[in-house]
Design brief:
disordered N terminus; single chain; two-stranded antiparallel sheet; Triger factor/SurA peptide-binding fold; 416 residues; 3 domains; 4-stranded antiparallel beta sheet; alpha+beta
């Protein structure tokens, strides 16, 4: 399906449009092309909405990547002063612009391709190279991401990648660039060598006089000079150093838990099997045979030539885009029920509810230690900013770094 869609958007008119779009980003920046439109969203690009939740997730992810690469801890205010907010917004708007263009061009990732991409991802495979559902859910949980959000993001990434691939295919480079690369790769040189025997000229070497030595020393001063060294004092302040100076009572921890309840919740999921048939008559016969107790896989093989993974949709939640049209019917059925026939653009669907995993919410008691640490670190970061300000004031008053640090700690009174 993606191949046929690429052909539809592979014309020069589309490529020129995308080229102008990318050029506008490079010359004027994202901020001059799109503007925040107000309302409850951070920004909107066509029909694509960038929500505060999406922006905050990307903002925190960029901070975590920075901390992992540099070992430097950042609070939100410091990250904003470094331009992380503008960088994240620019990236989100750029992706949204391409997503909107993909939607307008009718480029959409199929459910089969989405499922295949996930199963082939090394991040979700066990040591034998097989897809591991537990590993998949564990990776998403470690990254604070729900399954539906990951599938939605992956679907957009695949559509956006197909769009960019269509632009890159058969793109002719500028003539001058091609010529420079051609000359560089095919350049050849002829070298002539002169061999001088090791003992040649030994009879003309004389002991240098003082003037010659002085001149040589001046001409090669760098060889006889040691680099400049300096003693440096620094003050290393981290939120962890102030964590014992802040506190949070039980009610504050419970409120913090309620604010982050989505992170500790997993929706009900169902393992669903599917048969797709071309017409309602054949689908009706299949439904009657299933109702009489015949095997679902056998019916799928006989009537639709589907077997194994072809009939399995995997474990899905209510918000999964793969079953968006049939969500209510499928999640109102009991385990083992046959649902359908239900019609879509692909034909008539008959579903079987193979198994059900109920919704699970990690209790306050289970996550109390974790959220307490997070809340205390947030408050310690705020205290660190106050303490840093006091150190800077002392330095501005002429104190040395050690004096400024001692004075700031002595007069420091944390907010409780």
């Amino acid at each position: 399906m993606l191949t046929s869609m690429r052909k539809g958007i592979g014309s020069w008119s589309v490529k020129i449009f995308l080229g102008l779009l990318v050029a506008s980003f490079a010359v004027w920046g994202i901020g001059d092309v799109f503007r925040n439109v107000g309302g409850n969203n951070v920004a909107e690009v066509g029909e694509i909405e960038i929500t505060p939740t999406e922006f905050l997730y990307s903002f925190r992810s960029q901070i975590k990547r920075f901390e992992a690469n540099t070992g430097v801890q950042l609070d939100n205010e410091r990250a904003i002063s470094l331009g992380f907010d503008r960088s994240v917004l620019s990236q989100l708007i750029g992706r949204a612009a391409l997503d909107q263009f993909a939607i307008d061009g009718g480029l959409e990732t199929s459910d089969e391709q989405l499922r295949r991409t996930i199963r082939q991802s090394p991040a979700f495979q066990d040591q034998l190279g097989n897809f591991d559902r537990f590993l998949f859910e564990n990776v998403l949980q470690q990254n604070g991401m729900s399954e539906s959000r990951y599938l939605s993001m992956l679907k957009s990434d695949l559509s956006r990648g197909a769009l960019l691939d269509s632009v890159a295919i058969n793109l002719e480079p500028p003539h001058e660039l091609a010529a420079q690369l051609y000359r560089y790769r095919l350049e050849a040189r002829t070298a002539e060598l002169i061999f001088i025997p090791a003992g040649w000229g030994a009879d003309i070497v004389r002991e240098p006089d003082a003037a010659a030595l002085e001149t040589f020393h001046q001409d090669n001063a760098a060889r006889f000079s040691a680099p400049e060294y300096r003693d440096i004092s620094f003050l290393n302040l981290r939120p962890e150093q102030l964590i014992d100076r802040v506190s949070a009572d039980e009610q504050e921890l419970r409120d913090y838990y309620d604010q982050r309840i989505d992170e500790f919740s997993s929706l009900e999921t169902r393992e669903i099997q599917q048969i797709i048939l071309p017409d309602t008559e054949l689908a009706g016969r299949a439904k009657d045979r299933l109702a009489s107790g015949e095997n679902f896989a056998a019916i799928a093989l006989e009537l639709a030539e589907l077997e194994g993974d072809d009939i399995s949709l995997g474990r899905l939640n209510r918000n999964d885009p793969a079953i968006e049209k049939f969500s209510e019917d499928l999640f109102n059925a009991a385990q083992g029920d046959i649902v359908g026939p239900l019609e879509s653009d692909f034909g008539w669907h008959i579903f079987r509810i193979a198994s059900i995993t109920p919704e699970k919410i990690r209790s306050y008691t289970e996550v109390k230690k974790s959220i307490e640490k997070d809340l205390l670190l947030e408050r310690a970061s705020e205290e660190l900013y106050r303490l840093t300000t006091e150190v800077e004031d002392e330095l501005g008053g002429g104190a040395s770094l050690s004096e400024a640090a001692a004075a700031a700690v002595e007069h420091y009174e944390p907010d409780r």
